[in-house]
Amino acid sequence: MILRIAGLGANLHKVIFGVAFSLLWARVMYAIWNQPSYLTFIWFYLGLGSMLLKWIFFEIIDRLRVKIKMKSVQKELEEADIRVQQSIAGSYQEESKGQETMLSPISMEEKMNRLEIEVSLLADMVGTAIQRSMESLQNKDITLANSTIQDEKDVDRKEFAIRNNCIEIIKTSLSRDKHLYKIVAILGIITELERIGDYAEGIARITLMIGNEPSMELPANILRMAAKGLTMLRGGIQSFIENDIEKAIHICKLDDEIDVMYDDTFRKLILFMVRDSSTITKATRLIWAAHNLERFADRVTNICEWVPFSVSGEMKDIGASKY
């Protein structure tokens, strides 16, 4: 009964128009025939009138309603998009202003030290994201995967704030070449860290794709790749903070171990697909996860390549990934 009333309310304009049209059409008919025959009544009033009413007038009304509604919806979407953009910009600006206030009254050395601390915090954030994404994949934890995806926004905000502080220092108080080298290196490093955060989000999304469906066992090398990558990340950031070029070179060499584990994982998962076609979808998703971890390690080697630049201002080939 409620649905019927709701339907009547939604089509009230048609009911009103239909009644008005029927009265007008009857007036037209009796203006032509004072006493029409039954067949004339059926053909002219009901047949022709109903056809015009249904196929022409109602069609016009429906199209007009759709156009009006589409304009209204489009306007609402545009306003919502503006609100979202303003909210994001406001969050970034607020965090940047807070950082700027923190930096303004202190010495240049302290500013640089705080920038290094912020880079370390960002590295911790993406490292935690990788750990949580792997845990969600291993345990098929959809809640943890969703949380990891949401936390990636914090990584973006942190990267934006650090970048803004670097630019502010360059504009206002840069006085020594070594500071310039360090800041340029930081701008490069936080870009790599932000991409690592994206890989963590990607692995979490793979967890959502798998969901609670029965899945094949997680290859052991995938877990080893994640653990080795996190070790590389911690070492790479430490080499940057300590200006330790030798340690950065050592970290880059560890990437070869990641590549070997990835190749082994890739071959095994392909063999699973060949032997059992029902595993194709599941195995492909795990290959995506392994690929994200391999790219994670590559990004760490790129971070290490910024270490000699931050010391001397010269880009040197220390074995960083070219991808």
Head-to-tail CA distance between termini: 65 Å
Tell me the count of domains.
2
Instruction: List the uncertain runs.
Output: 1-10, 99-104
What does the main sheet amount to? none
Which radius of gyration do the C-alpha atoms yield? 33 Å
Which percent band covers the strand fraction? under 5%
Task: Please write the string of helix (H) and strand (E) elements.
Answer: HHHHHHHHH
Number of strands: 0
Q: What's the level 1 CATH class of the largest domain? A: Mainly Alpha
The overall pLDDT, averaged over residues, is 78
Structural write-up:
86% of the residues lie in helices and 0% in strands. Helix 3 packs across helix 5 and helix 4 packs antiparallel against helix 7. The relative contact order is 0.08. It is elongated and about 110 Å long. It has 323 residues and is mainly alpha-helical. It is built from nine helices and no strands.
